[in-house]
C-alpha cells in the first residue's frame, strides 16, 4: 500500500511542477519520503534532458527590476502554464534575473556563461529543467538606462505570473509619467522609439505601397502626395512610440505627453511571453 496521500502528491507537484504520474512514481520509489522523491524527480529529469532539447517553450514569465537607473528584464520559458506558475520555476526565474543584474550581462549568451555557485548558468538551466520535467530556456534579456526607469509587469491571466513586461526610460525625474508610458507600451506594442529608428528601406517600402494603393483606388494625381504622406503618418503612429496616441488620453500623442512633462524618452524594451 502506498505510503503517501493525495495531499502529499499535491504538495510535491506544487514544489516541482512535475506531472502527476511522475510524482506518484517518485513517491513510490521513495516509499513516501518527499525529499527522496524530489531527488528521484531531479535525477530522472537530468537523464531526460537531451530528449527535451527540441521541445517548444511557449509558456513562461517575464521578470524585471530597476536599480540605480538601470532596468533589467528577462523572459524565461517553459513548456506548460502549469510549470510557469509553479514555485520552483518562479524561484529559478528570480535567480536568473538576479544574476543578470549582478553580472551586468548584456545578452543571453553572456548570461549563460556567468558563474553561479561554481557552475555556468547554462548548467543551472539544465538542472532547473531536470527538476521541473520540462525544457526550460532563457529567451531574452534587456537592459535600459536613464535618469528615471520604470519597470511594468502585466498579468494576462490572474492565475499566471506576468506574461508582459516593459522597461521605459526618460532623461528626467518624473516617475509618474514614466510609469504611465510604460503601461501604454504594454498595451500598444510599439516597435520603435522614434521615426529615426525606422530604416530608410522600410519607409520607402511603405511609401511605395501607399502610392500604389492610392493609384489603384483612383485617387486624383494632384492629391497623391498629401494622401501618401497621410498614410505614412498612419504607419508611423502604429509602430513608433512617440507618435502613438496616448492610451490614457487619445487626444495627445505620447511625444506630446512627454514634452508637457519636460522629459524625453531615451529607451524602452517590451517582452511578451512566446511572442
UniProtKB/TrEMBL annotation:
<feature type="region of interest" description="Involved in Mg(2+) ion dislocation from EF-Tu">
    <location>
        <begin position="80"/>
        <end position="83"/>
    </location>
</feature>
<keyword id="KW-0648">Protein biosynthesis</keyword>
<protein>
    <recommendedName>
        <fullName>Elongation factor Ts</fullName>
    </recommendedName>
</protein>
<dbReference type="InterPro" id="IPR014039">
    <property type="entry name" value="Transl_elong_EFTs/EF1B_dimer"/>
</dbReference>
<dbReference type="InterPro" id="IPR018101">
    <property type="entry name" value="Transl_elong_Ts_CS"/>
</dbReference>
<dbReference type="GO" id="GO:0005737">
    <property type="term" value="C:cytoplasm"/>
</dbReference>
<comment type="similarity">
    <text>Belongs to the EF-Ts family.</text>
</comment>
<dbReference type="InterPro" id="IPR009060">
    <property type="entry name" value="UBA-like_sf"/>
</dbReference>
<keyword id="KW-0251">Elongation factor</keyword>
<keyword id="KW-0963">Cytoplasm</keyword>
<dbReference type="InterPro" id="IPR001816">
    <property type="entry name" value="Transl_elong_EFTs/EF1B"/>
</dbReference>
<comment type="function">
    <text>Associates with the EF-Tu.GDP complex and induces the exchange of GDP to GTP. It remains bound to the aminoacyl-tRNA.EF-Tu.GTP complex up to the GTP hydrolysis stage on the ribosome.</text>
</comment>
<feature type="domain" description="Translation elongation factor EFTs/EF1B dimerisation">
    <location>
        <begin position="71"/>
        <end position="274"/>
    </location>
</feature>
<dbReference type="Pfam" id="PF00889">
    <property type="entry name" value="EF_TS"/>
</dbReference>
<dbReference type="GO" id="GO:0003746">
    <property type="term" value="F:translation elongation factor activity"/>
</dbReference>
<dbReference type="InterPro" id="IPR036402">
    <property type="entry name" value="EF-Ts_dimer_sf"/>
</dbReference>
